[in-house]
Amino acid sequence: MKRADWIRLGVVLAALLASLGLLYPFFPLGNVIKLGLDLQGGVRLVLEARVLDSKTGEMIPLRESGMDASKQQDIVNQLVTIFSERIDQYGMANAEIRPVGRDRVEVKIPKVQNPEEAERLLGSTALLEFRKVIDASTSYADLEARRTLIQEILPNPDRTEWYLVEADPLLTGDVLDNAVVRTSTDPRNPGFLIALTFNREGAERFVEALRRLQVNDRLAIVLDNTVYSAPAVTSSIKQAAAQGWRAVQDSTTITGRFTLDEAKLLAVVLRSGALPTQVDIIEQQTIGPTLGAEYIRRGMTALVVSFVFVLVYMVVYYRWLGLAADAALVMTVLLVFAALRAFGATLTLPGIAGIVLTIGMAVDANVVIFERIKEERRTGKAPRACVAAGFAKSLSAVLDANITTIIVAFILFLLGSGPVEGFGITLGLGVASSMFAALVLSRLILETTGLGEFIPARAAQG
């Protein structure tokens, strides 16, 4: 073999071994390549940021608020950051979070068994406040008759009791340092509770608030305008406040007969902080794991059938040259899946469609090259010379056709979203891989194995 052939052989072997190493253990597909929401099931949410319109007093989309574009972008970026923290802390793996437009955030969480749980995790503003309780009653009307302009009426979680509280909070949750779930030891409130830890600034402000309250005054712990507990101020906590901020730093808990999942979710949203604005869920898509498995089965069936048909066709039409094209096609598919694994790309149902399309297009380069080789053979050249001339003279056509397709695929990936983005990824990877397999592997096989001697065309006489 020539020096160029040895180089091609080394490159092909390196690419083959790298692909096999990346794809090991090969099965099941979900353990090899990250699957999209449509293939493994889960939930997709689109959340819209909304702000209060000062003219109408109603909540309107952020983009209609007249706020500066830079401030709108800052709010959306804050939402993305807080959503990421909540999902990571709650243990939902492989989630995709990205801004959409000027006031929306798209969240994809695979393998979620309970979509309502994801809605509560992301849709909760998590505005924690401590307010002084004026009075409490099981009747809203009783409190409404006594309410003043600087007071509000808030319910408990199951709306069996109502609290008349001061409108201005004594303390807010932005001074929290931590929130953890603990098991309640109080037989009157069994279950779980959330233990709060203030940072130094928060503990100092909490001390100031306690000093303003009297023994037996009640302090409502309010989360998103719902009173979860309203403990009375005891003499012991007043004495602790007199000792300084360290004595009350971790002395506050939120009770409410939570289940473990509810307490865990509440602790996560408190730790991640309150959202900078209200968000509404405007789109929701839930796909069960059973439907995702059916999509995988159908998609892979289409891929295998198309793969086999193309392999057979190339051998029937080009005979021995078709074997080189088939080898290039196998290499192309390996490279596509290996690239998906290497780049951490997500395989979606449209992505499988892109791979099926790639299988049909992968032999285009070989078809152009083989037809050029046949033309050279008809002029009476020797087989080896025909192979070399065929690759040389068809190179520009192969590059032009494939590079333009790669450009389109890149634009689909860059500007598209969801199905369009998944299709663009696999199409671009497939075309690039097919070009490498056709120009490097096919030429190596034809020039070193003797298959290039069997060109299905007759040399011209004379």
Describe the structure.
The chain has three domains: 3-35 and 288-453, Multidrug efflux transporter AcrB transmembrane domain (Multidrug efflux transporter AcrB transmembrane fold, Up-down Bundle), CATH 1.20.1640.10; 38-123, 2-Layer Sandwich (Alpha-Beta Plaits), CATH 3.30.70; 128-259, 2-Layer Sandwich (Gyrase A, domain 2), CATH 3.30.1360. Strands 6, 7, 8, 9, 12 and 13 form a six-stranded antiparallel β-sheet that branches. Strands 2, 3, 4, 5 and 15 form a five-stranded antiparallel β-sheet that branches. A three-stranded antiparallel β-sheet has the order 10-11-14. The longest helix has 33 residues, at 383-415. Helix 14 packs antiparallel against helix 15 (419-448). The protein is α+β, with helices and mostly antiparallel strands and 462 residues long. Strand 4 (96-100) and strand 5 form a beta hairpin. The protein has 15 helices and 16 strands.
SSE map:
Blueprint: H1 3-23, H2 29-32, E1 34-35, H3 37-40, E2 42-52, E3 59-61, H4 69-90, E4 96-100, E5 104-110, H5 115-123, E6 128-137, H6 140-146, E7 151-155, E8 162-166, E9 171-172, E10 176-183, E11 192-198, H7 200-212, E12 218-223, E13 226-229, H8 235-243, E14 252-258, H9 260-272, E15 278-287, H10 289-318, H11 320-342, E16 346-347, H12 349-362, H13 364-378, H14 383-415, H15 419-448
Question: What are its keywords?
Answer:
Alpha-Beta Plaits; 462 residues; Gyrase A, domain 2; Multidrug efflux transporter AcrB transmembrane fold; 6-stranded antiparallel sheet; alpha+beta; 16 strands; 5-stranded antiparallel sheet
Brief description of this entry?
The protein is α+β, with helices and mostly antiparallel strands and 462 residues long.
